[in-house]
Amino acid sequence: MGLLAEASRYYVEDAAVPESQQLKFGANVAMMKLVSRMTLPIAIVAIAYLMISGNLFASSPFVIAAQLLAVVLAVWARRTFKRGQFSVHAEPAQGALLSSGPYKVVRHPMYTAALLLVWSGILGHLSIANLVIGLIVTAAIAIRIVTEEQYLRARFHDYEEYSRRTSRIIPFIF
User: Fold this and answer.
1) Residue 67 CA: distances (Å) to CA of 47, 113, 166
2) What is the rounded average pLDDT of the residues 12-40?
3) Does the pTM exceed 0.85?
4) What is the per-residue DSSP string for 67-91?
5) Which helix (H) or strand (E) holds 17?
6) What is the pLDDT of residues 130-174, one digit of tens each?
7) Which phi-psi region, left, alpha or beta, contains residue 163 (left: φ > 0; alpha: ψ -120 to 50)?
């Protein structure tokens, strides 16, 4: 939790963010961008390793069902974005705050889908190495969520209310 707390100390400094918001937590844009850009490749490499090693997919009907659900959720979340609104970086692209589709139930459905895909595969091929990889992916996504939410709070005045009524990752739980 120390790394998450450290990452959450940093706030975005951006021309689109009012100066009062920039000064609220002390801006450190370089650290925010570094954290944002490091975590996605870490998760991608870990998922690629699981796939190449044959540990991502399993023949269990439960794993297959969970992973199909993950793919459907990811596609639904991605299709909820309007043209030009999606960004692979934690900084939000243009457009309004998304609060429809899967974003009505969870704030980060793409991360939910990625975690469901990875953890269902890991549970289908349980080993210490796979558990470590799952923890790395989970930590990378958690750090990215903290970073992304800092950007979202700075960019959208209604994000605080949205975050109070919408679960972060697991519907109705967390």
Assistant:
1) 13, 8, 23
2) 57
3) no
4) HHHHHHHHHHHHHHSPTTT--SSSS
5) none
6) 999 999 999 989 988 888 888 888 888 889 999 999 999 887 676
7) alpha
